[in-house]
Design a protein that fits this description.
Layout lengths: L7 E8 L4 H11 L3 E10 L4 E9 L6 H12 L5 E5 L5 E7 L4 H11 L5 E8 L5 H6 L4 E3 L7 H15 L3 E4 L8 H6 L4 E8 L8 H8 L3 E8 L9 E8 L6 H24 L3 E4 L2 E4 L3
Parallel strand pairs: 5-6, 5-8, 6-7, 8-9
Antiparallel strand pairs: 1-3, 1-4, 2-3, 9-10, 10-11, 12-13
Helix pairs in contact: 3-8, 7-8
Amino acid sequence: MSRTPDTWILTAHCPSVLGTVDAVTRFLFEQRCYVTEHHSFDDRLSSRFFIRVEFRQPQDFDEAAFRAGVAERLAPFGMQVELTPPGYRAKVVLMVSKADHCLNDLLYRQRIGQLAMDVVAVVSNHPDLKPLADWHGIPYHHFPLAPNDKPAQERRVMQVVEETGAELVVLARYMQVLSADLCRKLDGRAINIHHSLLPGFKGAKPYHQAYQKGVKLVGATAHYVNDHLDEGPIIAQGVEAVDHAHYPEDLIAKGRDIECLTLARAVGYHIDRRVFLNANRTVVLNA
């Protein structure tokens, strides 16, 4: 379900206690806010509660009073609450290397309004994709990666993130491993995409390796970045069946398509406030 431009988003999470759903929905009712979408989940293993509500405000809506009131009402439950106003657009930094399919796809979805975001910068360790960023009118930062000076390059990356006020960094086929220090700084706000093949193939030409083994599935995984390589909390996955008639170039083409779709889905979930971190897992409250 796509979000309408006139709705607020309320998200909250807290320990599992009696009355959480009622506390949120009753407050919205009392404020004469019309709920257009509601999802909640209670994780019985971690004893955590998660809720996401979209609502329309009444004509005499007082934002400051509403924020103060909802904080006071939900405080006894220990809820951590976030309110996202109508028309909000997330500021995003995209990181790339040489492959352009994910970058091109995300910029297209931004341009047609499918993703409510503003890409404020493209950062790369190569100059190759600057023309694509230039065509969209987006600043392109080429930070070459010296073999023995990754910290200096990553400081420049982080400077761009901070100066642009970006809330999300997307590794749109950025083919470098982020340091543990940068992963910590971007915890919960950096998304990566990588191919998912059964069995797993590492190193050069994974799709050629997959062809040699006769795989029957190709896919992609979008996840938050952490300091364990490709083991961050998973947001979205995509998979498609293949067979003996798919040659390496066919697997590569299909993999590109799945990567684009899976990454776009994950970015959309994040900027629409549908994703909650729950230890090393995610709760994705999707319509």
